Amino acid sequence: MECTGEQFCSIIMDNLVEECVMVSIQEPMGVVTKKVKGTFEQIGSPQQYSLCDHHQKSLVYCHRTMELKAVTIQGGNNRRARFNLSRYSNASTTTTNQALPVVLGIDQWNLSCSKQTDSATPVLQLERCKDQLTTIGAQEKTVRFLFCKNTTGFSLTTFESAMYPGWFISTSLEPSQPIQMCQKQDARKLINFMVKH
After folding, report:
1. For the chain, what is the domain count?
2. CATH code for position 71
3. What does R_g of the chain's alpha carbons equal in angstroms?
4. Is the pLDDT of residue 139 over 80?
5. Residue 141, Cα to own-chain centre: how many angstroms?
6. What is the C-alpha separation between 115 and 122, in angstroms, rounded?
7. Under a CB-based contact definition with an 8 Å cutoff, are residues 51 and 73 in contact?
8. Is the pLDDT of residue 1 over 90?
9. How far apart are CA 171 and CA 185, in angstroms?
C-alpha cells in the first residue's frame, strides 16, 4: 500500500510520543541564580586584602564622608583601604561554580547592601554591625552584609549582593567617585576587581 506525502506525515505525527524543544541557556560562572537560602557559617578568620578595579583605581576609605571611593593612586599604596574579607559556607548554596559567600569589612564597619523604602535601587553603605556575623541566615536582616565573590580567569573578581541578586559592587568610569551597586549590564560602571594581599 502506497501513502501520499500528507498521509505519511500524518502517520509519523500520530505516532510521535512527545515533542520537546530545548534551548541552551548558560549563566555566567558564579552568578547567583536566585536569592540565597539556608544558613551561612563563617569559615576561619578574616583575611586582609585591598581592591582595585580593572582600570587600576584603588578603593580608598574617606573617614570624613564615610565613603569608599575609587581613586588612581600615584606612588605608594598606604591610602588603599584594607578590607577584612570573611568567608562563609552554606550546605544549601544556590550559586553555581565558584561563587564564595563573603562579608567585606573595614575596621569596625561592614559593607552592606540594602534598599531605602522609596528606592528601587539597592544602596551600598558602610554600616556598624552589633552582631559578630559568625552565622548569617538567608531570611535574617544580616544577609544584607553578604556578597557572592566570584573570580574568573586569573584575577577578575565580582561581588554580587546575596540579598539582591543581579546587583554588583561597582566603580564609576570617572575617577574619585564613590563605589555603588549596579546591574551587570550598566556600561558606565566597572564591576570587576583585582583582590590583592
Report:
1. 1
2. 2.80.10.50
3. 23
4. yes
5. 18
6. 4
7. no
8. no
9. 13
Looking at beta carbons, which pairs linking 127-136 to residues 24 or more positions away fall under 8 Å?
A: 133/42, 133/86, 133/103, 134/41, 134/42, 135/39, 135/40, 135/41, 135/42, 136/39, 136/40, 136/88, 136/103
For 66-110, the pLDDT digits (tens) are: 899 999 998 777 789 999 999 999 876 554 556 899 999 998 899
CB 105 within 8 A of CB 155: no
d(CA 103, CA 39): 14
The pair phi, psi for residue 7, each rounded to 5°, is -65, -40
Task: Tell me, yes or no, whether 165 lies in a domain.
Answer: yes
CA angle 28, 29, 31 (to 5 degrees): 75
Q: Is 0.85 topped by the overall pTM? A: no
> Is 91 inside a domain boundary?
yes
Q: Which three cell numbers stand for residue 63?
A: 573617614
Residue with cell string 536566585? 34
* Average pLDDT of the residues in 141-156: 93
Report the C-alpha gap between 171 and 150 in whole angstroms: 17
pLDDT bin (cut points 50, 70, 90) of residue 140 is very high
- CA atoms of 158 and 95, how far apart (whole Å): 13
Q: Residue 56: which domain range?
A: 29-196
pLDDT for 5-35, tens place per residue? 666 556 655 554 333 333 323 333 444 446 7
First to last CA, the chain: 80
